[in-house]
Specification:
By secondary structure, the chain is mainly beta. Helices cover 4% and strands 44% of the residues. It binds 6-O-phosphono-beta-D-tagatofuranose (TA6).
């Protein structure tokens, strides 16, 4: 049977391997319509920009880019838990481990797709057997898809996951977020109270940290300063998080510039808290986002 050739090599003019900040291994993708950067640590996209437009993603100027330290910005892959866990790293271990680049393919229209796999680790060995693959597809849009397979013979595997996406905005005071009206959320800034989103257009005027539950629809970031909308379409995700640390919390984070909160907002797509995934043995789950920009 003919074996399909799986490419993991550079593609001249399209896919380049390089040393990124602090010499961390980085893959640079150039298409006719866009560019993107991906660090093997965390399989983390840190940059996505369409030709002639401002960047879509935000990465802190103070991000550490140190092995084992989360990169502050882009699309951190949060897995297999979200938030703090006693004696364990906040937001799981996937974002600080070095993923393996397992496949590079060119699709019609000059679109580039990468597949990365999370290698086995001591942390993973404490869980039911699983495989985690991430697909990143770069073209006129950017897509990220996390595929988790429960490979254990009999154990179910309960996990949380999230694309913790940091978006670049022209000015947080000129931003509104739509798509969440009427959705229940956990207000992490108000003793985890459960509330219902009343606003059609959410504005960020203070520290904001909300986990919206049982929501599957698209969310749009309306940016009047940059004159664009960023649209987040998703499948296989039932939670959306909206986060901006605002001034005081940003000051407390060493890898976050004191006024950088003014030019970013996180709209995160995942399966968190009530929406934790419980995967039966032998089954797989897929969570996908697609990021696009549109005129206002
Ligand atoms: O997604 C929002 C959040 O859970 C916030 O509570 C804040 O902790 C943020 O993630 C960043 O977490 P990190 O561990 O990356 O500093």
């Amino acid at each position: 049977m003919a074996t399909t050739h799986i490419n993991t090599q550079e593609i001249p003019g399209r896919v380049f391997f390089t040393e990124g900040n602090n010499d961390l291994p980085k893959v640079v993708i150039k298409t006719a319509r866009s560019t993107a950067d991906l660090y093997l640590q965390g399989a983390q996209v840190t940059h996505f920009q369409k030709t002639g437009e401002p960047p879509v993603l935000w990465t802190s100027q103070l991000s550490r880019f140190e092995t084992g330290t989360p990169i502050r910005g882009g699309i951190p892959v949060i897995f297999p838990w979200f938030g703090p866990r006693e004696d364990m790293p906040s937001h799981g271990f996937a974002r600080t481990q070095t993923w393996e680049l397992r496949e590079i393919s060119q699709l019609p229209g000059g679109v580039v797709s990468l597949r990365l796999g999370l290698p086995d680790s001591a942390e993973a060995a404490l869980l039911p057997a699983f495989k985690a693959d991430l697909w990143i597809t770069v073209g006129d849009t950017l897509a990220a898809e996390l595929v988790v397979a429960n490979t254990s013979p009999s154990d179910e595997f309960a996990f949380e996951c999230c694309f913790h996406t940091y978006f670049h905005v022209g000015g947080i005071d000129a931003v509104s977020i739509t798509g969440l009206q009427g959705v229940e959320y956990i207000d992490q800034c108000d003793k985890f109270a459960r509330k219902i989103e009343a606003a059609d257009r959410i504005r960020i005027t203070q520290e904001t940290d909300r986990i919206y539950l049982d929501t599957t629809g698209p969310v749009e970031i309306h940016d009047t300063k940059l004159g664009r909308r960023i649209r987040v379409d998703k499948t296989g995700s039932f939670s959306t998080v909206v986060w901006n640390p605002w001034a005081a919390k940003a000051q407390r984070m060493p890898d976050f510039g004191s006024d950088e909160y003014l030019e970013m907002v996180c709209v995160e797509s995942g399966n968190i808290n009530d929406n934790t995934i419980t995967l039966p043995a032998g089954k797989s789950s897929c969570m996908k986002i697609e990021l696009s920009t549109l005129p206002l």
